[in-house]
Description:
It contains five helices and seven strands. By secondary structure, it is α+β, with helices and mostly antiparallel strands. It has one domain (14-183): Aminopeptidase. The longest helix is centred in the middle third of the chain and has 23 residues, at 94-116.
Amino acid sequence: xxxxxxxxxxxxxxxxxxxxxxxxxxxxxxxxxxxxxxxxxxxxxxxxxxxxxxxxxxxxxxxxxxxxxxxxxxxxxxxxxxxxxxxxxxxxxxxxxxxxxxxxxxxxxxxxxxxxxxxxxxxxxxxxxxxxxxxxxxxxxxxxxxxxxxxxxxxxxxxxxxxxxxxxxxxxxxxxxxxxxxxxx
Length: 185
């Protein structure tokens, strides 16, 4: 371990603001009401975002730090103290946040998961091919699985990819990246 990881919530580009628990497609509905675009479909949200039985560990609105405009939503859920993991979901409008704030939103959320709980990895279940905003942090992202035709999205079935960030990789690269981003604020 490279030092204590602090649960930072703000950089000069992005901020995480604690919010009430929302499940399934509820975050998407709220983000759509706020005029955000570029989000996963309602079907994808309903399938991959936390359900009431999964348990929410923490949820945040993601803000552009310069304007305080809400640009996305982040969730840490399905925390398993025995398996030592937590699932993470981040959905944001890249046109509202921009690349730096989007990368910081992913970094702050993963960092929060590692700083608050004794987990060995943070999981992402996505229909995308990868996690480019998280990859921009420089941390190693491991593809742990693929679920073919797992999620119904309208009339088609979509493949889900499961990615993980391990604590060792986060300690080596991610925590320091967050610390530098916070100090630049």
